Amino acid sequence: MTADILKITDLSIHYDTPRGALKALRHVNVSVPRGKIVGVVGESGCGKSTLISTIIRLLANNAKVASGSIVFDDQDLLALSETQMRGLRGTDISMVFQDPMQTHNPVLTIGRQMTDIQYRDKSTTAEKRNRAADMLALVGIPDPVQRLDQFPHEFSGGMRQRIAIAMALMARPKLLIADEPTTALDATLEVQIIKRLHELQAEIGCSILFISHHLGVIAELCEEVVVMYAGEVVEQGSVRDVFHSPSHPYTKALLDCDPGHIKEKTRSLPTIPGEIPDLVNLPAGCAFAPRCSQVFDACRSNRPAWNECKPGHHALCHLAETETVS
């Protein structure tokens, strides 16, 4: 048994468009160790959704795997048949989606939905309901037995997200993929969800791949972080190393834009100037070069190498070859 529950190697995903191949992911390498929580952070359009869609094999019809492998629990997911993948989804691999208001069927009770997703289990309906009530109690839903008979609209957004987490964890998966599960929630509920996820992960022992825009959430929950930009992994390492000693200008710019880092009153929030590059016609050198405050000639013409800044901390940047980003 390998140390990583999930190992993505040299993954490239292209979408066929009228303008040509849109290179959504390019040579992505990501590992999720067993029993650990790994965060993925980046702007909208950086490839986070394509990454998780590829892992669970739910890509759009115009998507093509140009290269790479996704090894989950010592088997390549890209080599499995659709029947084999259906056997993994919801059992060994579960997912919590971004919007809690769109996750559940509005015309079925929560109990009915939590019972139905246990269709692979040969237990009686009563046993399945008891298990569903136990999971609701585990995620902090009060009066879980009574609330099984309620419909989704009778729960708040925070409760619905906790129910989604409970449903995802019912099969005690080996890997939980959480796709920005706190984005639609207020700050208080966000803290509750993060705390509950951390407790459940410790109790069940699963690994978590956590997708988020929120740097504070990543810092609070995750042990390792993957920073993505324009379809590439630009920096990867422990949360402490990446957040305290960023080695890529994009990572530093993200941290500078975090409202938690603003120490003086201001009328305007800091932003990263410019736009993400055209993924159909990519620049010759570094993809971040047109927006980078530390760009130099090599950045515009040569693609940077994957450099080790310190053990376990890597960055895709020319500056990382000799020095940490200032």
Description of the molecule:
- Strands 6-7-8-3-9-10-12-11 form an eight-stranded mixed β-sheet, sandwiched between helices. A four-stranded antiparallel β-sheet has the order 2-1-4-5, covered by helices on one side.
- With 326 residues, it is α/β, with parallel strands linked by helices.
- It is built from eleven helices and twelve strands.
- Helix 3 (110-116) crosses helix 4 and helix 4 packs across helix 6.
- The model has no long low-confidence stretch (mean pLDDT 90).
- The radius of gyration is 21 Å and the shape is globular.
What series of H and E elements makes up the topology?
A: EEEHEEHEHHHHEHEHEEHHHEE
Ends distance: 41 Å
Average pLDDT figure: 90
- Please report which band the strand proportion falls in: under 5%, 5-15%, 15-25%, 25-35%, 35-45% or over 45%: 25-35%
Helical content, roughly? 25-40%
Give the total of beta strands: 12
**What count of helical segments does DSSP give?**
11
Radius of gyration, Cα only, in angstroms?
21 Å
Name the structural class: alpha/beta
Q: Report the major sheet.
A: 8 strands, mixed
Shape: globular
Please mark out the parts with pLDDT under 50 across 5 or more consecutive residues, or reply none.
none
Order of adjacent strands in the largest pleated sheet: 6-7-8-3-9-10-12-11
